[in-house]
Fold this sequence. Notes:
The protein is 38% helix and 22% strand. α1 links the parallel β1 (2-7) and β2 (32-36). It is elongated. The protein has helices spanning 15-28, 41-44, 80-90, 102-113, 138-159, 174-183, 197-209, 250-262, 282-300, 320-323, 332-339; strands spanning 2-7, 32-36, 48-51, 95-100, 118-122, 162-167, 187-189, 195-196, 215-220, 225-227, 230-232, 235-239, 245-247, 266-270, 306-311, 314-319. 6-O-phosphono-beta-D-fructofuranose (F6P) is lined by residues 10, 101, 124-126, 168-170, 221, 246-247, 276.
Amino acid sequence: MKIGVLVGGGDAPGLNAAIKSAVSKANELGFDVIGIRNGWAGLLDVDTQPLNSDSVEDIHSRGGVILYTSRTNPFKIENGPKKVIENIKKLKLDALIVMGGEDTLGVAERLHEMGVPIVGVPKTIDNDLSGTDYSIGFDTAVAIATDAIDRLRTTAEAHHRIVILEVMGRNTGWIALYAGLAGGANLTLIPEVPLGVSQVYDLLKKRHEMGKACSIIVVAEGARLVKEKEQILMESMEKDEFGHPRLGGISHVLEDLIQGNTGLEVRSVVLGHLQRGGSPTAFDRILAMRLAAKAVELIAEKKFGEMASFQACEVTSVPLREGMKERKSVPLELYEMAKAFFR
Ligand code: F6P
């Protein structure tokens, strides 16, 4: 049996540990593995690299992904799916492990429906896939964002300032809410709950009156601010091959609004890709290893069209279609619980 491993979409800390584990489990079962480079692009132009236990031995602690990645969508390219299927045959692949978020696994699901033997591994720092409690990379992103809050707090305190930290999270506020809770943010704004700017001013003025000049606000890049019944969302005009605009800059808008309306001194920081860079946490490494080993087991059992999944501390699997049926939003009960700290 020959297995191809492919990673698509944004990179996420832990992917290399997943690749190492897939190779090790596959070898244990007597399967060969090759890496497909640059996501689906590597199956359109046949760009591969050999993978064996020696070549992956020391990669578990490394960030990025040794196979590289891209946001290529074969369904947006003329004859793209046909080419992918032909090249899978040309490479004599018996099965494909696809590591990705909703876009990459969405392509995997469509190809599976066309007869390609595929299994999925969930990875996205956004943690928004409904078929798994945790996706590879989320824990590391939260740890980095929490560390950023701790650091920003000391400088904010020293200057009696308000500091806004903008974190990733296109459609969901998982990183923002977890880091905000762990870092003791005074307010967290998430895409699921649009917030009126006047509520932000009121909270900050109240803190100021109580003699608390330093405040920390965490905002997800996809959060919406409501001002005079209009929702403000900062997104680019151009879109990627999956139709997503680039997000970013809502913290700067909020900085200007707060400063202009309250006269308080504000600074904003966009954490950006620092959240995806560097070493994965121990949790992400182990999660990645367990999910990837499960993906190989699914192949051995010929359970194609499934995605490895982490649920209630157990590794299991769900059909790819189920795993992406809906976007996993932050539960409102969790946001309500966090609100107790918004003061
Ligand atoms: O999907 C993961 C993610 O990190 C989002 O949180 C973010 O909006 C996006 O990727 C950024 O993508 P890129 O690396 O292409 O700028």
